[in-house]
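Suppose you are handed a protein chain with no further information: no name, no annotation, nothing but its sequence. What can you learn? This example shows the usual starting point.
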Amino acid sequence: MKNEKLLNNFNFHGEVIDVVSDVADRFRKLSYSKIEASLPATTKFSYQDDRLPISVLDIIPKNDFEDVLVYHLPMGNDINSNMKFLIATIREALPNKRIIVTGNTAEPGQNSAKLAYSDIWEIHLGNVKSLIKPVVRYLANQAINETIQVGYSYGAEKTAMFSSLGHFYNQKITKSIILEPVAIKKRKFIDLAYNFLRSGLLMEDYVKETNCLAYEEARNLATIEGRGTLGYLVGLGRLGNLAISAELAKNNFFNRISTALIHQPQMKSVLGWGKNSELASNHNMLELVTLLKDSFGPRINDLSLDDQTHAMGDNIFLQLALILQSFKILED
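A reasonable first move is to predict its three-dimensional structure. Written in structure tokens, the prediction is:
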């Protein structure tokens, strides 16, 4: 299969390739409706009286679970069919972990995680607590105070945000897997938008690499629901997402991950990126990793892929391989 050949082109652990290949083979034989039916229902959680509820997908294994993994979605995504497919692959590969996902501000008409004007103003001032507060309060509601944090793109930034602020909420983070962070250098807002646009042009190529009809079904269903590419792009123009984008254009990632490593002394991290990424540029990532390793030593690990761009996460099976390989690195 093309996707497994792609995996073999990188230095992934043999067990990672085996697991991803197995998940891919099984999912290629299923319809999206079967995959979706295997997931628990998405629920609404009211995290604050004067805010709208957020969408939550909480996958609790039937037997005892080892850890709680919080996965932060990419920007402009609520828990739609496209994202459910992604989470289903992670659940399939990591059946002994409880997986919690919350929605982001997305397309018009979807008000889960909609930011209030006061939140938007706080983000403008550099205070991002409103972006992680829904997750923090859901975890508190579930009596969870120790997690693994994982995210891709804007989700990588939320992973760093949560990890850097978690100590304020008595949250302990043991591991963080940060794929394709964005706020690694200061850039103009228009340059950030251009970089995202360039990345988006390659998205469909990565989707095709999965060679999975169920994934295409999930994406088509998202489009029918108004949550496809057009809805996504329109959603990025909402005030909340514009404020988030302005924050991503700042060079704040280094300070956040450094703060996290200081306040979470047990936390180990993997930073992953594509060497041809339009957003997590290789030069900046190498410089950043070197500085972090100088300060935090083996608690910082890196995972970079030749010839890959920011949109590599849209090859769902490749993103899964990156997550599993990161766990292998952190367990050594």
